[in-house]
Write a structure and sequence with these properties.
The chain has 269 residues and is of the alpha/beta class. It is built from 6 helices and 12 strands.
């Protein structure tokens, strides 16, 4: 998929134009001309196609390395989001941006980002996913790259199965940012990587991620204009958090430009 990056970022709070308070309950999705990219049914169709297409690989190349891909796990080569996340974190093709300390990745999928954190220098990495196949996939790729001693793959719904006492220097989630109706029932575990009904998972992440940090640590969220930024900001306010934009880039995905954002979650002031 062709990618065109046309904007980089600032370290500022999200502007007031997109942060007006919302009424009780989750709002209907926008009706502007770009609303197609936020259509949850369209995202579910993308999920089904990615999961079942005949040319789905067992192995893929990304950033100069080969990775295993298991069934029912999000495929990084069918979307630019994994590569964008690596760029946001500074782990580019030359692998020269170091990282120290500990890292927790929520929604690890194949484990590319978590393992890249270890390759960049993190001494301890926990790769968590609600999809058991993704946990197995991350574990397989950690073994493949000789990092099984530093990358632990954990089956968990967000933070539920983690040691409540453990703290991390970096908590990161490249989220399932498309908003689905609160009553939506997933048709497959694969769909969990694409949509979040009622933003229940996002609400929990905003509330809980900063409490999992070491002193001076960062809780980061990779979001995009496929999601509802106004709703996300409202959830942040409800949980006593503020979102600050650290980086952004626009990628042409098919007929639509999609704005990807790296957001830091901080206590509201």
């Amino acid at each position: 998929m062709q990618q065109t990056r046309v904007q980089s970022a600032s370290s500022q709070p999200i502007s007031a134009s997109v942060t007006a308070p919302l009424p009780a309950g989750m709002p209907a999705q926008s009706t502007d001309p770009a609303a197609e990219v936020r259509d949850y049914e369209r995202s579910l169709a993308r999920s089904a196609q990615s999961r079942t297409r005949a040319d789905r690989p067992r192995e893929f190349d990304l950033r100069g390395r080969k990775w295993n891909l298991l069934d029912d796990v999000f495929c990084p080569t069918y979307s630019p989001s994994t590569g964008i996340a690596l760029d946001f974190l500074g782990w580019t093709e030359d692998w020269t941006t170091p990282r120290r300390g500990s890292m927790l990745e929520i929604g690890c999928g194949t484990g590319v980002i978590a393992i890249s954190g270890a390759l960049a220098g993190c001494e301890r990495v926990v790769a968590s996913d609600i999809n058991p196949q993704a946990v197995a996939n991350a574990r397989l790729n950690a073994q493949r790259h000789g990092l099984a001693d530093r990358v632990e793959a954990v089956h968990s719904d967000l933070f539920d199965s983690l040691d409540p006492a453990e703290r991390f220097d970096l908590v990161f989630w490249s989220s399932n940012y498309v908003l689905a109706p609160a009553g939506h029932v997933y048709g497959s575990v694969h769909d969990m990587a694409y949509v979040d009904p009622g933003y229940a998972a996002h609400r929990r992440f905003l509330a809980e991620a900063p409490d999992r940090l070491t002193t001076g640590g960062s809780a980061l969220l990779h979001f995009s204009s496929r999601g509802e930024l106004r709703a996300l900001h409202a959830l942040a306010a409800e949980t006593g958090r503020e979102l600050r934009t650290l980086s952004s880039t626009v990628v042409q995905e098919g007929a639509h430009p999609v704005d990807h954002l790296l957001l830091e979650i901080v206590p509201a002031v």
